[in-house]
Amino acid sequence: MNTPYHHGNLRQALLDRAIKTLSEKGVEGLSLRGLARDLGVSHAAPLRHFATKVELLNAIAVEGVGSLIAATGGVDANPPGVARLRAMILAYVDWAIEHSELHHILRNPDVMRHASDDLTALLAAFADRQRQEIKAAQESGWRTDTDPEVLFLHLVSLTAGTAIVTTEEVYQRRVAAPETRSNVEASIDLFLG
Amino acid sequence: MNTPYHHGNLRQALLDRAIKTLSEKGVEGLSLRGLARDLGVSHAAPLRHFATKVELLNAIAVEGVGSLIAATGGVDANPPGVARLRAMILAYVDWAIEHSELHHILRNPDVMRHASDDLTALLAAFADRQRQEIKAAQESGWRTDTDPEVLFLHLVSLTAGTAIVTTEEVYQRRVAAPETRSNVEASIDLFLG
DNA sequence: CTTTCAATGTTGACGTTGACTACATGCTGA
DNA sequence: TCAGCATGTAGTCAACGTCAACATTGAAAG
Question: Which of A53, A57, A154 would you mutate first to test chain B, the one with the most B CBs within 10 A?
Answer without folding.
Answer: A154
